[in-house]
Amino acid sequence: MTRRTAGPAGGHRVLVPELRDVMILGPREVRHLHVLRVRPGDTVRVFDGDGHEAEATVATLDDARAELHLGTALAGASETPMPLTLVVALLKGDKLAEVVRAATELGVADIRLIVTARADVREIGAQKLQRLERIAQEAAKQSRRTVIPDVHAPVTVGDLTWPGQLFVAQPGSTTRIGDVLDWAAPVTVLTGPEGGLTDAEVTALAARGAIPVTLGPRILRAETAPVALLGAIAALGR
Amino acid sequence: MTRRTAGPAGGHRVLVPELRDVMILGPREVRHLHVLRVRPGDTVRVFDGDGHEAEATVATLDDARAELHLGTALAGASETPMPLTLVVALLKGDKLAEVVRAATELGVADIRLIVTARADVREIGAQKLQRLERIAQEAAKQSRRTVIPDVHAPVTVGDLTWPGQLFVAQPGSTTRIGDVLDWAAPVTVLTGPEGGLTDAEVTALAARGAIPVTLGPRILRAETAPVALLGAIAALGR
Predict the structure, then answer these.
(1) Hey, is A22 helix, strand or coil?
(2) CB contact B198 to A (< 8 Å)
(3) Which residues of chain A neighbour B174 with C-beta distances below 8 Å?
(4) What is A84-234's CATH topology?
(5) Interface predicted TM-score (ipTM) over 0.85
(6) Interchain contact B75–A (C-beta under 8 A)
(7) Average pLDDT for chain A
(8) For the segment A79-109, what is each residue's pLDDT rounded down to a tens digit?
């Protein structure tokens, strides 16, 4: 339980709807506090999933209810300078879950699913989408993010809109993302399905301002490409 | 079956012990050829797992035996300019399998396992190690590598040796791997266990020439860090 005694940078993290001077927690979060052996008087971190995080003191704690008092606000040191968005093609089986988890760790603020010409999968059920949202929430907590990424229902690649710059992983490109990415505007990255985007899809995206970038000369699985590309961005230090 | 009619850059890939003018395949590889609907007269690609690859013509093919005739040699365009090595701490469950698979796609030529101070897992059985080798072999084939990475039995981080430059993923570092990596010498990257390397371990590695590098300000799982760091290298275009 080394975390329990950690200083301001450590401490258990509790998701709250809003950061307020006095916050009342219900049975579910209270159970979580008990599992973590939090006791009255302990300091925890509260975050609202929207980029705000602060220390809070556990004023009272019983079986079904806890009262937390807001302490020092904490800067969102774990967030990118501008929002980072991942656009990813629908993938078979449980592959999207792994992508969502890793993308959340790597700083993504928004995840948009797309359907492309070569997609094996063309839709996703409401339950599966909710599961991806829960995974993003868990991963945000574990990696001490102050933002929980939204996971959006899929659109076709033609209907896709994106904030800021769009970088598309594209075999054959020689442009390095590290040479062209600019944190003065939001950053969006896009990776395709198994089998890749079609040339027509890449051309259409490029006509709308997308920049194809390299991930090396090898063939990557559709679930490896987003992690690799987001890793390249994280390795720039943000 | 679009692959079947692919040109010199495509075609089915067959692992052979050595590239020779005439190559005889046994029942196992022949079964593979039948599954792929390869027929006498077809062109396939043969590779030896050691960086050599060439086209070959299927001269004869029956139920248990095939004879292949060597064609044009193919350059190892999918390989990094100098060997890329991944050093990774032992991880729980099936996490190493996923790391080996992604690392192979991302161009690693050698995988060395280490035991560190905070390791949950301190050893790996012979069977599990063999399974990792098989996974590397499959992944190499799928991503059309001409090198199959070796997976080495674990050593302690103190006993570790490495070729060329060693880059260690280290929270708090501000050095970007893209700014310091030099393909004039072999490149080795190292990532720690869940909970990270100890300060003493990082200091000891740095004293031996290792360079700590950033993967951003967030906390990554031990199985995400190697893929992210290798992704950063792939995004440099090699």
Answers:
(1) strand
(2) no
(3) 237
(4) Alpha/beta knot (3.40.1280)
(5) no
(6) no
(7) 90
(8) 898 899 999 999 998 999 999 999 999 999 9
